[in-house]
Specification:
This protein is an alpha+beta fold. It has helices spanning 2-17, 71-82, 111-121; strands spanning 59-66, 87-93, 98-103, 124-132.
Length: 134
Amino acid sequence: MKLIKTAFASVALSLLAAPAMAEHPMDHSKMDHSKMDHSAHADMVAEPNTDADPAASAQTVTAKVNGLVCDFCAQAVRKVFKKQDAVESVNVDLDSGEIVLGLKAGATLDDETIGKLIRKSGYSLVSIDRGEGA
């Protein structure tokens, strides 16, 4: 019974805290996330954004990025990339430090723009790999 009460309290607290966490309070454009201490939430796992199926996109682009270690990092990246008309889906893999972009059919996003958006999010680009979708 105590476990159920604890679980219920946890769910209720997370629902109450969700609006407060909707916006990340920090300006990522001026931060170097690779030097930040994320040990307090290093065990968090970001849920993949499944707004669209990347396999159905015309092209997928995988960007290897330094500094992606927490869910707030993933949210910041998703927010920046979802504003792009060419982007259909954004999946952030914290374990591998990769951002997988599903581009809309016929749409393109050049490497220079991807690099700028990653820097705007507060991270540094390591590499970009382009794969054709199904």
